[in-house]
Amino acid sequence: MKKIIQSVIGLIVAISFASGTKVQALESAKPEVLALMFYSESCGSCKILDPKVKAVKENYLTKPILFATFDHSNPASINQAALLAEGLDVEKIYNAQQKASGFMLIIDAASNEILAKLNREMSEAEIKASLDQALES
What we know:
Helices cover about 45% and strands about 20% of the residues. The protein contains five helices and four strands, in the order αβαβααββα.
């Protein structure tokens, strides 16, 4: 199985070089900003904020910003959210939110400083401005 995966990766790299496309190694792809959504299926604020974030997110797919969701809908998703927080090295920030939902935190990935807290009252333009400002800092 390992040889098959290595062969597929090799083929993708070869095709990319043949077409002139640069391939960036995953090790060098580190986010500068974390956009962490605190979400729950039963959250009314989430249902308002989430579509706005999804619409704006399209503008940042090639930027050094990582969008992640901490889903607090049920015990299994809460467990996964806690593991994700640990993997992103933001457990302290995650735990401070006490499983709340209905907002997004914008965090400097290097310092773990909270740069902004987005909520349902914000427009798409305000969300975009917050993300742009985070990328500039």
